[in-house]
Hints:
By secondary structure, the protein is mainly alpha-helical. The chain is about 55% helix and about 5% strand.
Amino acid sequence: MALVDDLVTAVLLASVAFFVALAFGLLIRYRQLSQRITASSDLGHDLWQALEQRMRKQDERILDVMGRLEVIQARVLTAPAPPPSTSPPPPPTQTAQPLPFQEVATDVMPAVPPVQQPESQQESHVSQAPSDRVRLDETQLRVVGLLAESPKNTRQLTDAIGMSREHTARLMKGLFEAGVVSRNDATKPFVYQLTDQGRRYLPANPG
Length: 207
């Protein structure tokens, strides 16, 4: 009977020793796992802090670039406008071509009939006066009166009689071919003056 009790006691002691050793081993394993978890947590924390610092630096750079862009934009908007150019415009490279006689518009002013002259007469710097006086219309007589005051160019006559440039040119050509006026070809526009034949049409010198 005593032997059985000793055997039971030995088994119990062995069981207790086994569980104590098992508990001790589990405790050591738990501590190792805890250390690994702590180390992993520290590593993750360090990684997160490094990432956060980088993001913070990127934000600072973006804000700096935006600030520079705002400064540049403000300078551009407040910059004074450049002064207007004072250089004269370049001269035109093309000159206006006179319209042919057939293409001259006739709806502005009535056409002035050309002065009749002998066929043998030729145009020159001072046209030869015909032997007989030719009949002049009212506009031609008005031009004779204007030239009696002083020689005038085509532009002045155009403004004075209120006709177009083409009509005035045709009128003066007819008077020139009739010997009523002479013209200076050395000036542009031509300068016209009365001839002795033209002075016969003045009211004070009736023919």
